[in-house]
Amino acid sequence: MLEAAVRELREAIAEHDGENVADAAFTRRVDQLISVFYDDIVEITHVPTRALFDLFVIKALYVGRRSTDAGVVDYLGALLDRYLYSKELFPTAPDEGPNLSYFSELLEETRQLRHFQNLFEAYRSYGDHALFVTGVFPRALRRRNGRRQAPAGFVDRGYYVTTGRRCYQLAAGHELAQETQQRRLLEKLAVYFEVYLDTLNEISEGYIMGFDLPLIADKMLDNFNAYRRTGEQRYLLNARRYAAILKVDAEAFPSLLASQPRAHVLEPGPAPRSDP
């Protein structure tokens, strides 16, 4: 159900490429699907990771930042799904270990092409590496202050932003960018690199490395109110599970919330960005 619904959203975005059709009904549908993602807290539901990543990108970029580019929405969903496997993030040569994404490695790659078939693939892959690392693991790239100094060779967010943008520019300028019809896409990834980086930061914090806490709070209260109405223990158990995610004292139920009215927690949306 969720996979088919996300496919419908993608088709609507592709059909209206160049404009944003995230009206109230579209936005409500996206929110409903994300809510469904958090519904089955007890059971493991098998959903293709690509469908989930597409949904998160649609929420954060297309709805939240009013993107008009269907190609970028598709590219970022595929990027997250592809890098789910660490071998894509750290490609290896047959006789070597993981190859980290440093610009010096790219310079070496331009001379020997050990890991990629051509420079176009090398440039684009290094751009992808930089975007993924800064987008999904932002805390790992923050400089340490005080007594705990950054280790030798430490590179921060600024390094990867500069490298990533430059790599996408180089890929866009390669002749294969035109042959593969990716020049415009790669140019956009270079120009709006930090917009897409912030988008992945939001996705990472809310859905990959963390949770959508306002939505979890709503579901906790929904289940607790259902327990108060019906007395069914399954609702109380679910409320306690959501409370555990929120780090609320689950054992305080039902006395803690017995006298509390239903609360609506609204998630503030990010400020619109121009044509990302």
Account of the protein in words:
- The protein has helices at 2-15, 24-37, 49-63, 70-82, 86-89, 103-112, 119-136, 157-173, 175-179, 183-191, 193-208, 213-230, 233-246.
- The protein is mainly α.
Main attributes of the structure:
276 residues; mainly alpha; 0% strand; disordered C terminus
Question: What is the secondary structure topology, with strand pairs?
Answer:
Layout lengths: L1 H14 L8 H14 L11 H15 L6 H13 L3 H4 L13 H10 L6 H18 L20 H17 L1 H5 L3 H9 L1 H16 L4 H18 L2 H14 L30
Helix pairs in contact: 1-2, 1-3, 2-3, 3-4, 3-11, 6-7, 7-8, 7-11, 8-10, 12-13
Mean pLDDT: 78
| Rg from alpha-carbon coordinates | 22 Å
Class per helix and strand makeup: mainly alpha
Query: Stretches where pLDDT falls below 50 for ≥5 residues?
Result: 91-100, 255-274
Number of helices: 13
Proportion in β-strands = under 5%
At a glance:
This protein has helices at 2-15, 24-37, 49-63, 70-82, 86-89, 103-112, 119-136, 157-173, 175-179, 183-191, 193-208, 213-230, 233-246. It has 276 residues and is mainly α.
